Backbone:
């Protein structure tokens, strides 16, 4: 019973992440690849067929393999993510949000941007 519950939870995480990834493919404000990475990770724990499908996917399989093997992120993805975080952070400063939250969010995004920029870049697939 416990094993079936674990598999169900892993599959639920995989499906939810995959749904968010599909939504992200159509909405420019949501990323796709991070959700597909989560779906492959969760699939590896409870749905090996989904994991294999994602690893062999013509568009996203290469990104998943590069991330798993080297922690690599393409320069284009890095640039786009940092650009979007910069736009979001800039817009945040024009909202009536408390100043402390503006600073907290801006510093968090700056930290994530720095971490992301320092990730290795993958070889061409």
Residues:
């Amino acid at each position: 019973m416990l094993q079936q519950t674990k598999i169900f939870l892993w599959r639920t995480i995989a499906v939810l992440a995959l749904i968010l990834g599909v939504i992200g493919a159509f909405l420019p404000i949501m990323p796709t690849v991070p959700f597909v990475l989560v779906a492959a990770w969760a699939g590896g724990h409870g749905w090996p067929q989904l994991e294999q499908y994602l690893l062999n996917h013509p568009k996203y399989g290469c990104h998943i393999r590069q991330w798993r093997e080297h922690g690599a992120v393409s320069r284009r993805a890095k640039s786009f993510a940092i650009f979007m975080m910069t736009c979001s952070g800039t817009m945040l400063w024009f909202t009536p949000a408390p100043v402390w939250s503006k600073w907290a969010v801006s510093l968090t995004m700056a930290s994530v941007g720095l971490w992301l920029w320092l990730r290795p870049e993958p070889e061409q697939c």
Observations:
- Residues 9 and 111 are 31 Å apart (CA to CA).
- The chain has a mean pLDDT of 90.
- The chain has two domains: 2-70, 75-117.
